[in-house]
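Help!! Second protein's tokens look totally different from the first
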Amino acid sequence: MLPLSGPGFSLFEQNIPLAIAIVVCSSVAYAGGSTLQHVAVGRLVDPDADNRAMGLRQLWRLIRTPLWLLGLFTIFVGASAHIVALMMAPVTVVQPVGILAVPWAVLMSARIHRHTITRAMWLAVSMTVAGIVVFTLLAASAASEHTVLDPVAIAIGCTVICLAGTSLGLLGWKGPVQLRCLMWASGGSFFYGLSAGMVKATSEVIKHDGFHGMPIFWVVAPFLVLSYGIGGFMVQQALANGPAEITVGSMTTTDPIVAVTFGLVVLGEGVRITALTGVGMALAGIFAVWGVVLLSRYHPDAIKPESATPPEAPRVAAQQNS
């Protein structure tokens, strides 16, 4: 069992530099695992289908696929490291650093699928990374060392995030085809962002003796399980409907924004943030999200369907005239 403390070291003591270093490593594992899972999912779905959402039978086949399981294990390693980092630093600092998974995913996917990384794609990735870096620096400069555990506030915050994530998931299921990957991933990101907040809250709760009997434990524990389960389901649907880079990009952008907002508003980590800092974080977050939107627009998988449309028009017209 992993020791939670030792001579001169404790997972429960704040150590922001070490936490950031751990998250950088976990971002590589997360990008690699997501790319492997995207390849496995791509072998089960029809790329020409209007709606590539997977049913229960396909999901059952998927979870028995060795390549998908390897991706799951890689993600588990990254997620475990991420949880350790959350125990050592505020969620407002740790969560945004995961955006580094985006460039890793772009490089890995280009290597696997042998497509060229265009200038527009690199610009989109740079926008996303730059936005989240600024977001992280602003959050770290005003991060609080104390976490507030209010059962009512946590329950309300969790409910709002769940409703928002579910709404995005519905758009991924029935919305415009070109936006389904982004919407599925964004919905999953809301639940994963919530899970990060729940991990932080849980790590604070279990510091107390007899935490099993505390009402707050029975608020955070169910939401923790729920957010991971539903978030994972939505992410697989996103991988079935588009490239791994878009899924990873959306998750590592929306996820930290949701998690940080939860930490600031619900867990009381924003008590030292000024109005000017808050405006700067909001603008940096918008800049990062816009980078992901551009990545979904200029990715080769998004361009091919559009470029394939004009050549079909003369052929259809000729068939009608004949």
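Here's the second one for comparison:
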Amino acid sequence: MKNFVLVVGSGLAGATSARILAEAGFRVLIVEKLNHVAGHAYDEFNEDGILIHTYGPHIFHTKNRPVFEFMSRFTSWNYYQHRVLSYVDGMYVPFPINRDTISQIFGIDLSIEEVDEFLSTEVKRSEFKNPPANFEDAVISQVGRRLYEKFFMNYTKKQWNRMPSELSSEIAKRIPTRSNRDGRYFSDPYQGLPIHGYTKMVEKMLDHPDISILTNCDYFEIKSEMKPVMTVYTGKLDEFFGKIHGDLEYRSLKLDFRTYRQEYYQPVSVVNYPNDYDWTRITEFKHMTGQKSDLTTVCYEYPLDSGEPYYVVMTEENANKSKLYTKEVSKIEKSGEYLFIGRLAEYRYYNMDEVIARTFNKVEEWLRRKK
């Protein structure tokens, strides 16, 4: 294959890149290390006939209408609105923290105005650095120490195997609190799951005569044989550069899937366990997919230090290393021969819609430069 673009990885960044480039007139070859497309968004029916998310739950949500419209070209939607409970003090309470959460935890009934005043008082009576120096300070500055200790402190230790004071304050920007009774986890206007699953959606994205796919293919084993006009790289940032600035940390998960002979196992799709047990959360997929069955499959999540990379670990040390790698990226992206896109390749946390929006921006900018 001559005059082609190489895309490393078939997750949302890779699949979106491939589709845009194919529609722009390029031939595209995707190389995927896994034995399937869709990356960590991959879902499949298990032996009990339940549609599960093999790499943990994925719920699409966005304020970005062009992203939603792009994805809607390849799927219809189950318009699911995500709800999460947290198991705290022996109770299932709404999370993110809202008016009902505070009512259940503290046994008080507050108006919307009184919730804001309550949280303000909690913050004022708590000690923290301002501006926040780390994750712990950032959360306490929003909800106070009591709620931080009940909902965030131990969950963070389990999730990251770090003290919250070791993690970047940037992570806490993703934590919403509400003074009303809105129990949804996200408030974005576009929410849902692909009606036939993420894998089917990605397969339709890649169903184009100018897109070819190689699975079970390690890019680094075939890199020297490839002569593409450009490479979209979505893999691990440090691995691409031979770890010249040292290892970047990626957090992994042990996912324990269990099927029960009952219609539902828990009241909502996800229950967090910040303080009890070794798992961080339990996901029940039927709540998300709307599937009907007398059986149900749930997934217990246990964070791990190593394994399949799921999350970047935002400590000061990792942030400093990633800056060094980002400088290397800037140098080679200027040549127009490479684009680095996605969570792993940019060493940043992105939601699914952010990955797609980022892909739009980078690929379309490359196409403008190419003209």
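Reply: Different proteins will give different token patterns, so don't panic. Residues 63 and 188 are 5 Å apart (CA to CA).
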